[in-house]
Amino acid sequence: MQIVENAHSKVVLIADDTQTIRAIVRTSLKAIGFKEFYEVTNGVEAKQLLEVKSIDLIICDWEMPEMNGLEVLKAMRGMEKHKDTPFVMLTGNANADLVNQSILLGISGFVVKPFQPQALCEKIASVFPSETPKEES
User: Fold this and answer.
1) Do 41 and 88 contact (CB within 8 A), yes or no?
2) What is residue 116's three-state secondary structure?
3) I need a labelling partner for 37 at 20 to 30 A (CA). Which of 13, 29, 80, 86 fits?
4) Residue 57's Cα: distance from chain center in Å?
5) Does residue 78 have a pLDDT over 50?
6) Secondary structure (3-state) at 104
7) In angstroms, how far is CA 37 from the centroid of its own chain?
8) Beta bridge partners of 110
C-alpha cells in the first residue's frame, strides 16, 4: 500500500452525511498513518470549519444537505489558505458535467462509491507529491 509521507502530522476533513462512509474513510486513512480528523455532516459545516482551521486534505461527498461538494470545493478554492489544499470528491454520480466543473475548480481527484478502502488510500497517496528530495546521481 502506498504511504503518504508525514501523514501522521496532516489534518484531514471528512465531509459526508453518512456516518458509515465517514467511518470507512477514517479507518482507511488511519491504516496509512493519518491521525487527526475533523468530521462534518454537511457542506455548510465543512465551509465553516475551513474558515477557522488549517486542513491538509479534504475528502468530501458530492451529495450532501445544505451545500454540495462542488459548492464546498468552490468556496474552499476562494480561501487563500486552502486554494491549493488537496480535495478528493466521493461520489456515486460520475456525470461529465460534475467532472468538468470540478476539474475547472482544481479538484485533486474522485473516488466513486461504492469504493474499496485500498482504492481510496491509493487516490489519497496520489494527491500528495513526494516530500522527499530526490538524490542526485
Assistant:
1) no
2) coil
3) 80
4) 5
5) yes
6) helix
7) 11
8) 89
Measured CA to CA, the distance from residue 72 to residue 70 in angstroms comes to: 5
Neighbours of 131 (CB within 10 A): 8
Domain covering 7-116, topology = Rossmann fold (3.40.50)
d(CA 18, CA 26): 13
User: Taking the model in full, what pTM does it have?
Assistant: 0.89
90: helix, strand or coil: strand
Candidates 61, 57, 38; CA nearest to 48 is 38
Kindly state the average pLDDT of the residues 79-84. 93
Q: Which of 8, 29, 20, 27 is nearest to 125 (CA)?
A: 29
**Could you give phi then psi for residue 107, rounded to 5 degrees?**
-65, 150
Tens of pLDDT, residues 87-103: 999 988 767 787 888 88
Residue with cell 486542513: 55
Question: pLDDT for 40-49, tens place per residue?
Answer: 999 999 999 9
Chain-centroid distance of CA 59 in Å reads 2
What DSSP letter does each residue of 43-85 carry, written as one string? HHHHHHHHHHS--SEEEEESS-SSS-HHHHHHHHHTSGGGTT-
